[in-house]
Design brief:
The protein has 480 residues and is α/β, with parallel strands linked by helices. It has 2 domains: 187 residues, 3-Layer(aba) Sandwich (Rossmann fold); 258 residues, Rossmann fold. It is built from 14 helices and 23 strands. The protein has an 8-stranded mixed β-sheet, with helices on both faces. A 5-stranded parallel β-sheet has the order 2-1-3-4-5, with helices on both faces. A hairpin with a 5-residue loop joins strand 6 and strand 7.
């Protein structure tokens, strides 16, 4: 027997109310009625329910960023606005009602509602006094009369404030009935699946990084010429942040070491360490990965005698992290001198530059118990962390395999930044993932979030390949 929403695409907008957890069950009820459901999350909603839950149940990527693109390059919330048969916002906060009534498109939920001609159903949930406030009443009335929205009023009962009264999200079957009534008699807007947001059957990632510590670097380091000028590598930080967010959604504990970026950081969910120079990034890496240089790790370090050099190195040391994804664009050079005063502007300037240390190669040596000569002179880490590097090339990726070998990493993600779709600051990327076993995975043009998940798929696969003893060791260390 077909459901009442068979063949329909329903957009479920979730805003930042404590009732957001109920939207998961609402999604199930809409699906049971035959609907194809795509979920939109406001920024505050992600703090109540993670995108992974909605993605796993809806089989669609969750839209949470206003400018996020679909894998095929289309703007996600516009595609939803043009193809959804109805948009239901549940729970709808007082903030959302006010923003929507004023036409302020500050997130994907309001933007989609503004851009769509489909019926919109709003189910508010908030404290009782907020619901009864004249501002809220006025916003609700405007949405009903001026916009033609259906408002499923809240019910009464215990509230998150500890009080009891009106303000609870309406019973979910009532919201489903309102959606059914709103689309009744209307033709399906986009029966062709190609016009809708693509489904991701078999691609939604499970929480396979629960209990793991993933360290990600992002952004571009800046080396001072003087107190007001610097040199550095171009980077928006978008790729590194996408990896951090993907790891968080898969259950990892994430430390994000962030140099200069132009995108929002997930500082509400990750431990974010801001840095500026390569030296600061190196110090943050050593402190995060190895507890600083005071535990025998040193400067890859300070000679060859640490931890058993000459007489045979001890076998292993406990790892403090499970994976490092080095997505930061680390400056390759820095001025040999940086005066503490602004240099006078003249006819020209000559800078003497020196190379910065290869941080990823240094981390790799420490991780594998090697000194700068390649001799095994210190403790190798167990479980062996997975090391991932990035290589931004121009015109050709021919140098990438040699970089993977020289840096001693497990995976190297290479891309041609001259490609207009995968250069600096783009929403998409076209990469090749090389692995230490000789594998080569050439990915098509994808959103950076999808690239992030494909990289993490490789990380998880290498973690799963550890011996049972190593696996046990990793999880017991996390549980301490």
């Amino acid at each position: 027997m077909s459901g009442r929403l068979e063949g329909r695409l329903i957009a479920l907008g979730v805003t930042g109310s404590i009732a957001a957890y109920k939207a998961v069950e609402l999604l199930r009820l809409l699906t049971a009625e035959g609907a194809d459901v795509v979920v939109l999350l406001s920024p505050s909603a992600t703090r109540f329910v993670g995108p992974l839950t909605f993605a796993a149940l809806s089989r669609h990527a969750v839209e949470s960023e206003l400018m996020e693109l679909l894998p095929d390059g289309r703007i996600g919330h516009i595609v939803i606005a043009d193809s959804a048969d109805a948009v239901v916002v549940a729970p709808a906060t007082a903030h959302w009602l006010g923003a929507m009534a004023s036409g302020m498109a500050g997130d994907v939920v309001t933007a989609t509602c503004l851009a769509t001609s489909a019926p919109v159903i709003a189910a508010p949930a908030m404290d009782g006094d907020m619901w009864r406030h004249p501002a809220t009443s006025g916003n609700v009335e405007r949405l009903r009369t001026a916009f033609g929205y259906t408002v499923v009023e809240p019910g009464s009962g215990p509230l998150a404030s500890g009080q009891s009264g009106i303000g609870r999200l309406a019973d979910l079957p009532l919201i489903v009935d309102a959606v059914v009534a709103a689309v009744a008699g209307r033709p399906v807007r986009a029966p062709d699946p190609a016009a809708r947001p693509p489904r991701v059957d078999g691609v939604v990632r499970e929480p396979d990084l629960v209990g793991r510590h993933v360290v990600v670097t992002a952004g571009g380091t800046r080396e001072p010429i003087d107190p007001v000028r610097y040199i550095g590598n171009r980077s928006s930080g978008r790729m590194g942040v996408a990896i951090a967010e993907a790891a968080l959604d898969r259950g990892a504990r994430v430390t994000l070491i962030a140099a200069a970026t132009s995108v929002a950081l997930p500082d509400d969910r990750a431990a974010v360490i801001p840095v500026e120079t390569t030296g600061e990034l190196r110090a943050a890496l050593l402190a995060t990965l190895f507890g600083g240089a005071g535990e025998g790790f040193g400067d890859a370090m300070a000679g060859g005698a640490a931890n058993g050099a000459g007489g045979g190195a001890p076998e292993s040391a406990t790892a403090r992290f499970d994976a490092l994804v080095m997505a930061a664009a680390v400056s390759d050079f820095r001025p040999t001198q940086a005066p503490d005063h602004k240099l006078e502007r003249g006819a020209g300037m000559t800078l003497e530059l020196e190379p910065t240390p290869d941080l990823l190669a240094e981390v790799s040596r420490i991780t594998h118990g090697l000194d700068s000569t390649g001799a095994a002179t210190r403790l190798a880490l167990v479980p062996a962390p997975v090391l991932v590097g990035f290589a931004a090339e121009t015109g050709s990726l021919d140098r990438a395999p040699d970089k993977l070998r020289r840096k001693g990493v497990d995976l190297l993600v290479a891309n041609d930044v001259m490609d207009p779709d995968s250069g600096f600051g783009t929403e998409t990327n076209r990469v090749v993932i090389l692995d230490a076993d000789g594998g080569r995975d050439e990915l098509p043009l994808l959103s950076k979030r999808e690239v992030a998940d494909r990289v993490l798929d490789g990380v998880v696969a290498r973690m799963d390949a550890r011996t049972p003893a190593e696996q046990t060791g990793a999880m017991s260390e996390v549980s301490r």
